[in-house]
Design a protein that fits this description.
homodimer, alpha/beta, Rossmann fold, Dihydrodipicolinate Reductase, domain 2, Alpha-Beta Plaits, 10-stranded mixed beta sheet, 6-stranded parallel beta sheet, 14 helices, 24% strand
Amino acid sequence: MVEIAILGYGVVGSGVAEVIRRNHDSIKRRAGKEIRVKKILDIRDFPDSPDRELITKDPDEVFSDPSISVVVETIGGTGAAREFTQRALEAGKHVVTSNKELVAAYGPQLLNLAREKGVYYLFEASVGGGIPIIRPLARCLAANELYEITGVLNGTTNYILTKMEKENMDFEEALKEAQRNGYAEANPAADVEGHDACRKIAILSSVAYNEFVDYREIYTEGISNISAADISYARAMESSIKLVAFSRKTPKGVLARVTPALVPKGHPLYNVEGVFNGIMVKGNAVGETMFFGQGAGKLPTASAVVADVIDVVKHDGSGIGFLTMGEKAGRLVDINEDTGRYFVRLKSKDLSKTRELVLKLYGDVKQVEPTGAPGAGGGYGVQNEFAFVTPVAQELEHMQKLSDILQAGSVFEAAAKIRVLDK
Amino acid sequence: MVEIAILGYGVVGSGVAEVIRRNHDSIKRRAGKEIRVKKILDIRDFPDSPDRELITKDPDEVFSDPSISVVVETIGGTGAAREFTQRALEAGKHVVTSNKELVAAYGPQLLNLAREKGVYYLFEASVGGGIPIIRPLARCLAANELYEITGVLNGTTNYILTKMEKENMDFEEALKEAQRNGYAEANPAADVEGHDACRKIAILSSVAYNEFVDYREIYTEGISNISAADISYARAMESSIKLVAFSRKTPKGVLARVTPALVPKGHPLYNVEGVFNGIMVKGNAVGETMFFGQGAGKLPTASAVVADVIDVVKHDGSGIGFLTMGEKAGRLVDINEDTGRYFVRLKSKDLSKTRELVLKLYGDVKQVEPTGAPGAGGGYGVQNEFAFVTPVAQELEHMQKLSDILQAGSVFEAAAKIRVLDK
């Protein structure tokens, strides 16, 4: 029998206890040993919980108990979670976590400490909820040079954008609906501003390229500026707007960004809707693979944590093979050197002058008209807009042209500039 | 350094040698040791191959060489492949394979033999080409009770059906195109009749449910009866026809089938086109996950083989955890007890009588009219058809009703009876 402790009895922590209880027999068969939760550390009381007998407020009951060999950290954040993770590793206990903040910020150090102590630090649940992705990157695709990752990694923003698209809601309405359904926090900034997706693409990239990608250096743009009118234009282009996290290994370093993007119909990520996540990975032998599933939620995330626990139990003392995220922070490519296409909406005082200017600057681009929503072309106030998709160019060139347009006088605002995702 | 041998220098075998050469450095880093191909066993000559120096016709050079610790079997079939696999395992060598015929027929025995000898028998590449699927089922989703698998598992049939759909080809044309492009064999029966998909769903189900599912007992129907008219009707229903392999764990045993099916838009498998594969897995904690990628091809499949080799090298002597496919053959649910909906096309001598009869037997079903193809409604000779989707019912009831219709006299043929895939 293997005894484990859970740190933090929140949504995921209580889910871990539930999965271990519910799938007791099959977990025992797969791990080769029975797995039992011995202690749960939390400062709160849970008088009605089925696990109330196991809950303690005293960290020593976990860290000084030699019979506890695996610690599950589901506290979140980089405060107590970091301290307890270090303490557990130093005490020679394996640590399994769903904490993306901690892994994104201190992953390499914690992995080093684990290696020194001969124990594992595993974090399958930190990205993609229940979707197997860390292990596939590190192991199943190990024969490849992985060079590109494109993902819809945040369920909250995807839920909001899907609501806007399918039910013609505007951003504020959809956000409120997400909050009512428990898919968005009261303070939604971490999701809506892209910070969550940013940490996740940093973790995936570090594991895939074996080069630490610091999330603080990734260009990140959220979805709070996406309007119902943008969605209506996207529909006209048979595209869907999603918050897309992207990274590519290049000879100059890793290029990474998190931005809203128009995902065209036919792209594997086009159908990733609602709270689902999709992660597309390219490798030099396997070509393109995609992983899809519920990117968050109590039981999916808990099942990923428990899969890591099973892996540890099965391999205790022998070697799963340590994960690596690279030793030191790699150089990120300057986002101004990025290339791509944009969908641009220009609010115009004089449409024929604007059209002329756009054609002069960008060549033969086609005007896009919004469709498909009630009142489109009217209700969204897009009457005096010239909207189009630019050719592929470098970021700097895009900025220069847009600045030229705004200075020319016939345009008083660029109402949108949204990346177009190419396959 | 670890030395390996490759048995069979065909498409996948030569791909394995190529991937090991090409990604030498990253493979070494991930495996922790250098991996070198020492011998390649094949009865043919390959005077122009970069690997020609390694090729031998003498099995003893492989099996009697104690320095070779891992054997890659890419011969295929259940003849020499089986004999050599047994010989390798008995000599204490790990075996990694892409051979679905052998795994589907003798997987449990070979896994037992491997366990006895303390070595591994791994077969990630036997299903889904480069898509990580066996390891995710056995390990990443280990915390779940897995209960359902739905997959587009055969790239050849999917290529043919996609061609029929996108380019309005008929079956024979699309098959010839697949053969010209190397996606179908001269004798295409194994793919077209569903035997390949059948073996693959048997392997996946055995691993997921830990209960051996004998492929010989799975109800299997191919795609050779799918016509351009069917595709045209499917389009009218916003669906795509695919060869779908399905299995579900039920209290009565495993229900499994391979049949063409109408996959509705919005279903995760709807967008799996061309030679791609998609595999949807449901578990009691993770919910629904999907894996997508190139289901065949030299380098994708080879990369899955090499990932298994890396896993073996990393864990030599310690324990990846043996795979299991169940000890003995489980009972399959009688296909007549299966329930579902069908799309049915009735060739009628008297449309109004047929309509009356159908409404009487099935209740208020809607007639479907084919659209979207040049000449549809005319060119495909569907003028005198009554086509509709049945309500959900048991297989036996479906058969009874169809027999009643045919006996009533107004219908001279059921031109199609295609399962409708529900989510």
